[in-house]
Amino acid sequence: MSSIPRIAIIMDENTSVDGTRYDMTKNYFVAIHRAGGLPFGIPYFMDMVGTVVNEFDGFVDVGGRFAFPDEWFLDGQVSKAPRSERLDVELALMRGFLERDKPVLGICNGMQVLAGLHGCRLSPDIRAMGSHIMDHDRRGHEHPVAIMANTMLSRIVGKSELAVNTFHREAVVELSDGVTAGAFAGDGVIEAIEVPSRRFALGVQWHQELFAKQDHAGNAIFSAFVQAAGRG
Fold first, then answer.
1. Could you read off the pLDDT of 110-149 as tens digits, one per residue?
2. Which pTM does this prediction carry?
3. Smallest Cα–Cα separation from 58: which of 45, 39, 43?
4. Which of helix, strand or coil describes residue 106?
5. Cα–Cα distance, 5 to 29 (Å, whole number)
6. What's the CA gap between 93 and 15, in Å, rounded?
7. For residue 193, what are the contacts with CB-CB under 8 A and spacing of at least 6?
8. pLDDT tens digits for range 59-107
9. Is there a contact between 201 and 111 (Cβ–Cβ < 8 Å)?
10. Which of 68, 81, 180, 225 is deepest in the core (most CB within 10 A)?
């Protein structure tokens, strides 16, 4: 059996159309492969969850746009996104890897799932939080994020600031006691979280995979994740 870490990557889908296709960038796979892992796409079959959790070394929860449970949001607010069959499988995978303390990496939607499972609260429309909030839903736009000192993220990237992309409407706005903020945008929006009680449980709001073929300091996140997965 190969000693190279095997990484499960849940597939995304075309929820903006009709949800009939798995649809995602190849860059998630490129990023994991370049970091030294073996990436595998995981479809939405609940009877696969146990096998995936048992046989894979780490889990990447990718971006996507679909509705989360109402209780994850601020009181009186609910998601404006469509429903998806992805959610139940995604939650089962994330819970399974966390319970076994296998490394998990959440990107955009994946960070929000990691947060929701740990009692954090989300906003379904971050622009409605105040006039000081910038437009985070801008494909191709970049902005700086401040990396918090003494966090796992700061140790991984070795910098106090990163330039990142931004493509999200929802955001984590309240943290639970078990979750730490790893980075903030200039308007105060939480851009990264981590769960200190786990060996490696990190979420970033931006799409780091889109930098996979570039020289970007944030790609160290993938390297650290794969290394942690290899330590079993």
1. 999 999 999 999 988 776 666 577 766 677 788 999 999 9
2. 0.95
3. 39
4. strand
5. 13
6. 20
7. 111, 114, 115, 120, 172, 175, 179, 180, 181, 182, 202, 203
8. 999 998 888 999 999 988 888 887 889 999 999 999 999 999 999 999 9
9. no
10. 225
